[in-house]
Amino acid sequence: MGQVLGAIQDQFQGRQWRERQVRKITDKVYDRFKDAPGKSDEGLTFEDVYIAVLEIYNDINKYLPGPHHDPPSKEKLQLMIDEYDFDLNNRLDREEFAEFIRKLTADSLSNISLKLAISFVAAPLIALMTKRATERVPGVGPVVQRLPNSVYASIIAVGVVLAQRSGDDCV
User: Fold this and answer.
1) What's the start-to-end Cα distance of the chain, in Å?
2) Rounded to 5 degrees, what are φ and ψ at 84?
3) Residue 66: which of 33, 109, 32 has the closest Cα?
4) Long-range pairs for 32-39 at CB < 8 Å and ≥24 separation?
């Protein structure tokens, strides 16, 4: 029972939960590259970091809703690596890599969070607020009056999601 309550509490803490999830992903990616044959324990090289970034962006684009997010160019990536290489050894250790990935993916994750909030919170709320005005539209009014609020809000939310997805395809 305690595990269930802990999981529910994690979901409601939002930012901390998301940071722990990002940390789990970065640790998993870091360990996979560090444990590869012929690699040293000094940290990840530029090539390792570049491949890791491509894999992470591939997962973001595959599993999270929203538009396609392009990874940064090699030049921008090198500048960011230089910024997060605190010990100046041209390699990123576990902590440097975690901070690097957190900064790199922050914009993508906040964009996705914003779209989800609009789709599933704001759209139904606005739909319910405007339902009464829609009831006076000839031809549509009687249908809207018969629909329960939950069904009407769900239809509007689905419409907003479809509009967002069609807008993402155009970009």
Assistant:
1) 46
2) -100, 0
3) 109
4) none
Distance CA 33, CA 7 (A): 30
pTM of the predicted model, to two decimals? Answer: 0.55
Cα(127)–Cα(157) distance, integer angstroms: 8
Domain housing 157: 2-170
When divided into structural domains, the chain yields a total of 1
For residue 16, give Cα distances in angstroms to 19, 23, 116. 5, 10, 18
Averaged pLDDT for residues 85-93? 84
In Å, how far are 23, 128, 135, 151, 155 from 148, measured between CA atoms? 43, 10, 12, 5, 11
Highest mean pLDDT among 56-70, 73-87, 96-110, 152-166: 73-87
98-149 per-position pLDDT tens digit: 888 888 777 666 666 566 666 666 777 777 777 777 777 888 888 888 888 8
